[in-house]
From TrEMBL:
InterPro entries: Leu-rich_rpt, LRR_dom_sf, RLP23-like. Its main location: membrane. This is Leucine-rich repeat-containing N-terminal plant-type domain-containing protein. Pfam families: LRR_1, LRR_8. The keyword Glycoprotein applies. It is a single-pass type I membrane protein. It is found in: Membrane. Keywords: Glycoprotein, Leucine-rich repeat, Membrane, Receptor, Repeat, Signal, Transmembrane, Transmembrane helix.
Length: 233
């Protein structure tokens, strides 16, 4: 990733295949799988990303599948406030989710699958009013989903499967009126499935574990007094 140190990065790199530009300003970076997966390679830490945060015109950033280690840099994301698409899956990011990440008001898609992120989901997630898709599959996220997440009216895809969430599904789950795919499998869910999920008119798949999967509204027509209990891994 020596390209980040290039002084002419913002002027010359628009000719590169992995870079997209508008009016000679970098708007898209597709840097997936650039670091070889070799047993003897030097460990790459998250500090390598610091120069990217000077690209204030960046709209799309894909740094997936690079096995980058360390915590997600906390301050830098506030500098790329126009970001709409962020893909960081398949790395080795650890630590907690930085609140600064949720100051990206334009963010529509975020993918952090297959990392080592722990801690809870910050309440600032509710700031992302334009969020359409978020996936944190296979991390170490714990605690409960913050109530602010259930106010994201544009959210259509949410995957929090294979984490350590320990919670009951609140009635507010039904507020996700545009959700189509909701994956909460392989967590420590308990309690009843709220009847409010009947309000999810766009729902195509609700996965709460291998004992309870709903496809295409096929089982949403249950009565409020019917209790569905969760004890799913």
């Amino acid at each position: 990733m020596e390209l980040y140190g290039n002084d002419n990065f913002t002027s010359d790199c628009c000719q590169w295949g992995l870079v997209g530009c508008t009016s000679q300003k970098v708007t898209h970076l597709h840097l997936s799988g650039l670091i070889p997966s070799l047993d003897l390679k030097k460990v790459v830490t998250s500090d390598v990303l610091a120069p990217l945060f000077h690209l204030q015109t960046l709209i799309s950033l894909d740094i997936s599948k690079n096995d980058i280690h360390g915590e997600i840099l906390r301050v830098g994301f506030a500098n790329i406030s126009s970001l709409e698409y962020l893909d960081m899956d398949g790395n080795s990011f650890n630590g907690s989710l930085p609140p600064h990440l949720f100051s990206l008001w334009h963010l529509a898609t975020i993918n952090l699958d297959y990392n080592l992120i722990h801690g809870s989901i910050p309440t600032q997630i509710g700031n992302l009013s334009n969020l359409v898709a978020m996936s944190l599959y296979s991390n170490k996220i714990s605690g409960a989903i913050p109530p602010s997440l259930f106010h994201l009216k544009r959210l259509g895809f949410l995957n929090l499967g294979r984490n350590f969430l320990n919670m009951e599904l609140p009635a507010e789950t039904g507020n996700l009126s545009n959700i189509e795919y909701l994956f909460l499998d392989n967590n420590n869910l308990s309690g009843e499935i709220p009847s409010s999920i009947r309000k999810m008119e766009q729902l195509k798949c609700l996965d709460l574990g291998d004992k309870f999967v709903i496809w295409a509204n096929s089982h949403l027509d249950f009565q409020p007094d019917q209790a569905f209990f969760l004890g799913l891994g």
